[in-house]
């Protein structure tokens, strides 16, 4: 009964005192718990307070050593960078760029991603264009045509975009020194299975390898370079941008981003050699990038 009615010792204020085990005292004697006051702020909070109302930060694939300091080494990231910088609205988009080395940590596991600073909100890749269109809508008569002068030129730009994404992008991917096991997923139209369309064996045994004729893929990419060259050479001297637009448009962002990354391919690349030999394409890429670089917020 004495054990049942025992009470732990108490302080004068009524709080209970327990003696810490010996191993706890020994641990904290060697590694004392120290709590330091925070003397700085999270970086994005500082930039959100000091930046403009709609200031945003675009997370991108890091630039390559041979590229301009702000241009991403990835076609998708560079295209989005140019979409922001080339956008012709009443006010320029207050965007900055942040190299993000761990793509899997981005929303959806892909880059680019958009950090809206004053909302502490992250947008995944497929949400960025919609945010840009709604927050900074185009003005004037050409807004439905993305800044292009006529419906005919808009249709031609749309056809060219299909060529870029359907042929030039796969050619660039096929020209990279190494490809991942999911290389085929980056093609707009997936190549056929190496095992054939029908097989009695399960995919776990046959794998998901694809039968890719890289020479043919690169050949189609070079044909796209020829098409862009013809478009540029058929324009007048007063038309520095594609399809006679008065300023760079989204088609210039798409074409430039997919041309520029080809220059970073190894010197032995057939696609790179084909691009370098077409001097009008190099002049066009530099013209677009110079225009965009002047619009980077200081």
UniProtKB/TrEMBL annotation:
Q: Which InterPro entries match?
A: Metaxin_GST
Q: Which domain of life is it from?
A: Eukaryota
> What Pfam families does UniProt report for this protein, alphabetically?
GST_C_6 (PF17171)
**Residues covered by the Metaxin glutathione S-transferase domain:** 225-288
Q: What is this protein called?
A: Metaxin glutathione S-transferase domain-containing protein
């Amino acid at each position: 009964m004495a054990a049942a009615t025992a009470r732990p010792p108490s302080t004068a204020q009524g709080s209970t005192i327990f003696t810490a085990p010996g191993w706890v005292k020994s641990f904290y004697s060697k590694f004392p718990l120290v709590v330091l006051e925070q003397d700085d702020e999270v970086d994005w909070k500082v930039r959100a307070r000091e930046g403009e109302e709609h200031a945003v930060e675009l997370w991108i694939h890091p630039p390559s050593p041979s590229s301009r300091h702000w241009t991403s080494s990835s076609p998708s990231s560079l295209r989005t960078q140019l979409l922001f910088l080339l956008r012709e609205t009443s006010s320029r988009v207050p965007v900055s760029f942040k190299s993000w080395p761990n793509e899997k940590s981005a929303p959806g596991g892909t880059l680019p991603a958009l950090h809206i600073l004053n909302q502490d909100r992250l947008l995944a890749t497929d949400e960025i264009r919609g945010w840009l269109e709604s927050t900074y809508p185009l003005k004037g008569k050409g807004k439905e045509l993305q800044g292009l002068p006529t419906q005919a030129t808009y249709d031609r730009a749309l056809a060219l975009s299909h060529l870029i994404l359907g042929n030039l992008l796969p050619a660039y991917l096929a020209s990279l020194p190494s490809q991942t096991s999911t290389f085929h997923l980056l093609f707009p139209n997936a190549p056929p299975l190496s095992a054939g369309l029908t097989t009695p064996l399960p995919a776990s045994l046959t794998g998901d390898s694809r039968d890719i004729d890289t020479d043919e893929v690169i050949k189609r990419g070079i044909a796209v370079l020829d098409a862009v060259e013809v478009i540029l050479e058929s324009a007048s001297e007063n038309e520095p941008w594609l399809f006679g637009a008065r300023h760079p448009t989204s088609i210039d962002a798409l074409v430039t981003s997919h041309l520029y990354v080809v220059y970073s391919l190894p010197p032995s690349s057939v696609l790179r050699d084909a691009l370098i030999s077409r001097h009008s394409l190099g002049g066009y890429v530099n013209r677009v990038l110079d225009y965009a670089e002047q619009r980077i917020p200081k």
